[in-house]
Sequence to fold (426 residues):
Amino acid sequence: MKAFANIKVKNWEEEFAVRLFEQVAQQTADDQGVSRPAYSSIETATLEYLEMCARDEGLHVNYDNGQNAIFCLQEDKDAKDFVLVGSHVDSVPRGGNFDGLAGIVAGLICLVKSQREGRKFARPVKVIAMRGEESAWFGPCYIASKALLGVLAENEQSATHKGDGRPLIEHMSDIGVDVAAVRNAIPLMDSKHVLAYLELHIEQGPMLVEKKQPAAVVSGIRGNIRHKRITCIGEAGHSGAVPRAYRHDPVLAMADLLNRLDESWLTILQKGDDLVLTCGMLATDTATHALSRIPDSVGFSMDIRSQDITALDEMRELLQDEARHIENDRGVKFQFDEEIFTAPAMCDAGMVEDLTQAQKRLGQNAFVMPSGGGHDAAVFANAGVPTGMIFVRNRGGSHNPGEQMEISDFLQATEIIFEYLTSPQK
Ligand SMILES: [Zn+2]
Fold:
């Protein structure tokens, strides 16, 4: 997969970025896009490639107890307190190459730039390439950052892999993560030494394309309520022989539930609150389903997100209430798996201001926006680490091979981070 087909390389930053993006894309190519499963050997190989590139530039590299790679200038390798810049290396199945990887490459460029140009960081900087962030493989999201901060919940540790059905904690153990610490909720990284956390990420919605902005400063990140599987159980029957009044059709019950949630969604938006809702997976039992059979059950997923915790609480209650009503109306039963919850997170107001000032000093239009997608940054923010994020314009959506980031946009966004890191702190 060629990430940038027709590009003429102008400077070392561009050459460096293009080389890393293209090499990782090739190394992790799937039949479409890239697949870098969380806690897999492909993910490890990606970290090893980044390690090699960093060592070639004379950077210091080590792995933390979560088996994430950490890069820094030689002079900062023993720094106790540091600014952490990073993102994740894993991807969704057949995903885009820049989701996650862009944030790590940006961090590496900042390190190399400081070294090559002799521009000192105001505070020591460590760049982290984290493992599993995507929920596509096990269900829980932000796995590596939660493990780092000692907040990977027990039900998340035991979540099973979509392919082999083995629990997450076993996959983590296989690659050498300190799982005893994870089990005991002992942080793998002491957050009081993290002076700030900063993440560059592609925007996963259309806002920056619409606004003709190459980069933006992020104000906050939506939290989410997730159910990997809700099962609606009804009663099987012949599609031609059972009259409507005698049916307990789980598919229509599920559709009824989704419709009711959709109506409430609109009401919440009309109140001016933030909310998005998605049912991304749904299926009847392939072993028994048939064109002419009323199915006995249907399974579906639910992903509800908002910047506002009260909107999430309201939707949780509504989901249960509506399910109970539909059970009574239609003679079906809804079974919920354990909810996976991630709280919304606000970026640090001081950092939003500093990053905005940095963007202005570089002659860019200042632009601040919320993040629709979830990011590791949310975990750091909720652990009390001052957190900031930069978005890069991205066409073609995200979590698919069509994602498209211009290298010039990426370098402008990286400049904001470098300007921030090299500016004196108030
Ligand atoms: Zn991401």
Q: What stands out?
A: Residues 309-330 form the longest helix (22 residues). The first strand starts at residue 60 and ends at 63.
